[in-house]
Amino acid sequence: MADDPSAADRNVEIWKIKKLIKSLEAARGNGTSMISLIIPPKDQISRVAKMLADEFGTASNIKSRVNRLSVLGAITSVQQRLKLYNKGWLASTFP
């Protein structure tokens, strides 16, 4: 079945993707505290970071203090996580 090394690699990749999808399906957030950010493989991290900075500015205008702090905290968390990745990692992980 998987005697070919490339077939084995492909099976591992499929397994990783299925595992990722399961974990994403199980993810739950409380109201406005969860952000789903999907970055296309060839997109620039700097563009996404700028978009998040713009959203942070927009979220600062939310009237409800609880919602505003929740959204700002979620955006800040995404910005910090985004700093951990570089374009090379994204391109090599998701060609």
TrEMBL record:
<dbReference type="InterPro" id="IPR004403">
    <property type="entry name" value="Peptide_chain-rel_eRF1/aRF1"/>
</dbReference>
<feature type="domain" description="eRF1/Pelota-like N-terminal">
    <location>
        <begin position="5"/>
        <end position="94"/>
    </location>
</feature>
<dbReference type="InterPro" id="IPR024049">
    <property type="entry name" value="eRF1_1_sf"/>
</dbReference>
<protein>
    <recommendedName>
        <fullName>Eukaryotic peptide chain release factor subunit 1</fullName>
    </recommendedName>
</protein>
<dbReference type="GO" id="GO:0000184">
    <property type="term" value="P:nuclear-transcribed mRNA catabolic process, nonsense-mediated decay"/>
</dbReference>
<dbReference type="GO" id="GO:0003747">
    <property type="term" value="F:translation release factor activity"/>
</dbReference>
<dbReference type="InterPro" id="IPR005140">
    <property type="entry name" value="eRF1_Pelota-like_N"/>
</dbReference>
<keyword id="KW-0866">Nonsense-mediated mRNA decay</keyword>
<dbReference type="Pfam" id="PF03463">
    <property type="entry name" value="eRF1_1"/>
</dbReference>
